[in-house]
Amino acid sequence: ALRGDTARPGGADGAATLVELDAALVRALGLRAEAAAFTKGARRAGLAPPDRFGTEVVVRLLGLRENHPAGEDELERHPRDVATRAQAAYSFARLLELQPSELEQVRTEAAAFALPVLSPWQRRILRTAVGLVGYPYVWGGSSEQAAATAAGGFDCSGFVWRVYKLQRYPASARLPRMLQGRTTYTMSAESARSTRVPYRQLAPADVVFFGAAGPSSKPAQIDHMGIYLGNGWLVHSSRNGVALTPLTGWYRERYAWARRPLAEARLEPVGEVTGGGGLVPVLP
Fold first, then answer.
1. How many independent structural domains does the chain possess?
2. What range defines the domain where residue 259 resides?
3. Distances in Å between the alpha carbon of 198 and those of 57, 83, 214, 260?
4. Which stretches of the chain score pLDDT less than 50?
5. In this structure, is residue 10 part of a structural domain?
6. Residue 201: inside a domain, yes or no?
7. Domain of residue 139, CATH code
8. Residue among 149, 185, 16, 172 at smallest CA distance from 84
């Protein structure tokens, strides 16, 4: 993690922004085509990602962008803010540590990156989500707008809250009411056990929960969450900020369950959840 840099945005003329720094890192690694492939895949799905999207996906998959330690959220930066010396130094140090296998993994993931055909409502939700890729992880954060003591950003539940609860979508008065609690514990507990979505029945825009005991986790054990993009990809806020991550390894092992707010709000058909023996509820 980064430490000890108190520089603020708005440095000397010619200072690089975080987006520009990240683009330079991607060029240095010869991964511009891979960054473009991630952007192209998102655009094909109709998600209208920001120009920085592919670059930010790549640098976060490689761990070139890292959060400041807890208690130093005021040092976090937006993508268009000027990069600090500590941020640049960390990224270059991490770049020098990269193994060929890590670069090859990103090439493989980029070459295969594609999203399924999305419904109009799935597309609306995921457009909001991918538009926030590149923002920092901020403890307790649920907005990209800067506050008095911290840059704008999101913790894992705050990211989901921002996408589903705070964003206003046309003809969707019911949708913000589907998520009542603000934390991982409460949002995961709001869905009955019989309506939990198992891994093999995930659909784009599902809210995904992770816990130490996997599917046997209790709501109090849920310690991470995000939004499912489709085809094995998650968009979430974690140690690398808002990023895309494959649902493999740690994430697959700790997958607990998901819920489907679009169906709960009657914006999508109510789908059968065979793994739990029930249906996604339709609330009054």
1. 1
2. 18-279
3. 26, 41, 11, 11
4. 1-12, 272-284
5. no
6. yes
7. 3.90.1720.10
8. 16
CA-to-CA dists, residue 173 to 57, 71, 120, 170, angstroms:
32, 36, 16, 8
Q: Find, among 230, 233, 231, 229, the residue nearest to 246 by Cα.
A: 233
**Is residue 88 a part of any domain in this protein?**
yes
Distances (CA, A) of 164 to 39, 158, 168, 207, 268: 23, 10, 8, 10, 15
If DSSP states are collapsed to H, E and C, what string results for the chain? Answer: CCCCCCCCCCCCCCCCEHHHHHHHHHHHCCCHHHHHHHHHHHHHCCCCCCCCHHHHHHHHHCCCCCCCCCCCHHHCCCCCCECCHHHHHHHHHHHHHCCHHHHHHHHHHHHHCCCCCCCHHHHHHHHHHHCCCCCCECCCCEECCCCCCCCCEECHHHHHHHHHHHCCCCCCCCHHHCCCCCCHHHHHHCCCHHHCECHHHCCCCCEEEEECCHHHCCHHHEEEEEEEEECCEEEEEECCEEEEEECCCHHHHCEEEEECHHHHCCCCCCCEECCCCEECCCCC
How many CB atoms lie under 10 A from the CB of residue 276?
19
Strand partners, 209: 225, 257
**How many Cα atoms occupy the beta-carbon half-sphere of 268 within 13 Å?**
24
Per-residue pLDDT tens over the stretch 71-103: 777 778 888 889 989 889 999 999 999 999 999
Task: Report pTM.
Answer: 0.90
Q: How far, in Å, CA of 187 to CA of 55, rounded?
A: 31
In this structure, is residue 284 part of a structural domain? no
